[in-house]
Amino acid sequence: MNIIDNFLKPELFKNIQKTIMGDTFPWYYQADSNYKTEGLSQLTHGFYNHDLPKRINSPFLELLEPLVTKLNAVGLVRIKANLTYPSPKPQGRHTDYNFKNMMTAIYYINSNNGGTHIEGVQTSKGNIKDEFVNSVENRMVIIPGNVPHVVVRHTDPGIGRFVINFNYYEGEKNCHLEHDFEKSYYKHTEVKNNG
Question: For residues 191 and 187, what is the distance between their CA atoms, to the nearest angstrom?
């Protein structure tokens, strides 16, 4: 597991935060956040989904270019924003996908008293333990895609918990993500170092 605070420069982060938490950003109701038995609803915004015929399904995908590039994502599976409501009720554990070598990254858009419970994290000494990651704005947590995790809803009154989830395959450093909205795909090209 890798936790990176201040993942983006402040001006890039603030642009993303202002847009996603703005009153004109479109959110869509999802009756259950993980499993149909939980009864915990949320709002979502799908930016990209490899399962759909039109993979790019948001005009806001370009907004996330700095995040995707810094993650060194060479193959996208899904990018989705979640807006959860305050609740003391626990959610179920889950993995987003079970694809070999896939990574999951959670980017926190705002700070609150919620977070993410990550199961089975290997420590530097080789021990396995569970870890709680607090929701801190501009924090990115990166885990292998097969690691179970649990959304811990916040209880702060009057605010939502805003996150963006990335499921992707990691590539080499110095790659640049190029997107073609008409063909609805992403392509990575190597950035040549002229120095």
Answer: 13
Identify which of 27, 6, 134 has the alpha carbon closest to the alpha carbon of residue 84.
Answer: 27
pTM of the model: 0.84
- β 73-84/149-152 pair status: unpaired
Instruction: Using the structure block, give the residue that is written with the tokens 């995790």.
Output: 149
CA dist 120 to 124, 127, 146, 151, 158, Å? 13, 9, 10, 15, 33
Other CB atoms within a 10 A radius of the CB of residue 194 amount to 4
Domains and CATH numbers, the chain: 2-190 (2.60.120.620)
Q: What is the pLDDT of residue 184?
A: 40
- Indicate whether 194 pLDDT > 50: no
Q: Which helix (H) or strand (E) holds 67?
A: helix 65-70
